[in-house]
Specification:
By secondary structure, the protein is mainly α. The chain has eleven helices and no strands. It has helices at about 5-25, 35, 40-50, 65-75, 80-95, 100-110, 115-125, 130-185, 185-190, 195-210, 210-230.
């Protein structure tokens, strides 16, 4: 491949990566599990922060844990802003706090169980919090925020890495089929240089997709510059 054709080749490879991402988006309704990727980390964290009352089932005036998780999953699947998702999750967790589950929540958040139980009782009776109880509730709020931030950041990383890997597989498959269609013969293609070139193009497609235009423009500029210098 001569250098002057390299910008066009990079643009084409990046276009293949963009097509792979587009095809992945198109098949998400058929394979809903794709949108659920990463949510397991959030599910585990929120499940631990929304325990039932000891021996009494779910707290009063709060969504059941199953409904909390369903609400958070709906926001995750629809791609709601991460900051908003974390705020909603924290609000639902704090609504779930009660005197019956405060001890379990205190163990999860490393807060004094007696103080957190007193906080829950004060909230339930609409009683103003004392300075000590207010400090304990603020620590609880801060720790819940930190736990949710960790869970959502890890979940987002899992989702992005997983979708990139799936898009890469799609790009490799498209490049493989495209190479085979050019050769026209399975025997002349299988395990031959053209097949490995197609696989390499597929592997490069998704990493190049976001930056292909910039690289192509830079290379074109460099080629034109060298041509001008040689004249």
């Amino acid at each position: 491949m001569i250098l002057s054709n390299l910008p066009q080749a990079i643009t084409a490879i990046g276009g293949l990566g963009t097509a792979a991402f587009g095809l992945l988006e198109a098949v998400k309704p058929v394979f809903p599990g794709i949108n659920h990727m990463g949510f397991g980390r959030i599910r585990a964290t929120v499940s631990g922060l929304t325990p039932d009352e000891a021996g009494a089932g779910q707290p009063l005036n709060a969504l059941p844990q199953a409904n909390v998780l369903e609400s958070l999953l709906a926001n995750w699947v629809n791609g709601t802003d991460l900051g908003s998702q974390k705020s909603i999750a924290k609000s639902l967790i704090k609504l779930h706090l009660s005197a019956g589950n405060a001890a379990a929540l205190a163990a999860k958040t490393n807060v004094d169980p007696a103080l957190l139980t007193a906080v829950a009782q004060s909230i339930a009776s609409a009683t103003a919090l004392t300075q000590q109880h207010g400090d304990a509730y603020a620590r609880f709020d801060l720790i819940v925020t930190a736990l949710l931030d960790e869970a959502y950041q890890q979940a987002d990383q899992v989702y992005r890495n997983s979708t990139r890997a799936l898009a890469a597989l799609i790009a490799v498959g498209l490049a493989f089929v495209g190479g085979l269609s050019l050769i026209g013969s399975w025997g002349a293609y299988w395990w031959k240089p053209d097949m490995f070139l197609a696989l390499l193009v597929g592997l490069l497609a998704t990493p190049l997709a976001p930056i292909a235009k910039d690289i192509s423009s830079a290379l074109s500029t460099a080629v034109n510059t060298m041509q001008a210098v040689k004249k």
